[in-house]
Design a protein that fits this description.
This protein is mostly helical. It has one domain: 3 helical TM bundles of succinate and fumarate reductases. About 75% of the residues lie in helices and about 0% in strands.
């Protein structure tokens, strides 16, 4: 009980100020920044399908350390997913401290947001709502990636999107993750004053515009990428389960000539 009181109020049972909430906030920011940057990199990785199946295949094998081990080691991907999952769990647990503890509290926060009509307040509400959705949706995706690292590739990923009907989950994750990440980076910069400079108000405007640009860019890229996987999955549906090989492209090119 003493630890709970200290975490929420910043006061110990002796009435002294505690640094625990500040430490939790710093750890929340650190894990959030790591996850946001990872998700941006992840989006760029999966979008390599737009450059061609062969490019996406080569990038996949790069993560499997194919340049060190012939054929690659999918277990490397599982290790990466395990590390990200651990950071995700820590971030989620710390984020739960910010959630309304009851429906009445939520109503008060929502009313406060309407009265304030302040973009940052509205973004904060989206943060915890999207965060709650991701606790469930992202956990499913992480579990699949951890247990099936060998099923990442042009055909395997597309088959999962279409054949296993994962497109809806990925569409939800796309919206939540990309906006949550950009908003999180913006709020972290504002909270800790990383780029305040001589004119914090002007910096806020600039960073807000950067946040909007990041959200728009990654959402657009994500939608186009998801549609590309859906198309490949539909075209490949008659051969679902077979994995991509660079020879496939070679065969197509020879047949065209």
């Amino acid at each position: 009980m003493e630890n709970i009181i200290e975490a929420y109020t910043g006061l110990t049972t002796e009435g002294k100020k505690s640094r625990t909430p500040a430490r939790y906030d710093k750890l929340l920011t650190a894990t959030g920044v790591i996850l946001a940057l990872f998700m941006m990199g992840h989006m760029l990785f999966v979008s390599t399908i737009l450059l061609g199946k062969d490019v996406m295949y080569k990038v996949t094998k790069l993560f499997e350390l194919d340049f060190l081990f012939e054929g690659g080691l999918p277990v490397v991907v599982s290790v990466i997913v395990a590390i990200i999952s651990f950071i995700f769990i820590i971030h989620a647990l710390l984020g739960l401290r910010k959630f309304p503890t009851s429906y009445k509290t939520y109503i008060k926060v929502r009313e406060h947001s309407k009265i304030m009509k302040h973009p940052d307040t509205s973004m904060w509400m989206f943060q915890w709502i999207s965060g709650l959705i991701m606790v469930f949706a992202a956990s499913i995706h992480l579990y699949i990636m951890f247990t099936q690292p060998q099923n990442i590739g042009p055909y395997a990923s597309a088959d999962r999107v279409v054949g296993q009907h994962m497109w809806l989950l990925y569409a939800i994750l796309l919206i939540c993750v990309e906006i949550h990440g950009s908003v999180g980076l913006y709020r972290a910069a504002m909270k800790w004053g990383w780029f305040d400079g001589d004119n914090p108000k002007e910096t806020r405007k600039k960073l807000f515009n950067v946040k909007k640009a990041l959200s728009a860019f990654f959402l657009a890229l994500g939608v186009i990428t998801l549609l590309a996987y859906i198309k490949i999955g539909i075209d490949h549906s008659s051969m679902a389960g077979t994995k991509y090989s660079p020879k496939d492209n070679l065969t197509i090119e020879i047949s065209k000539n």
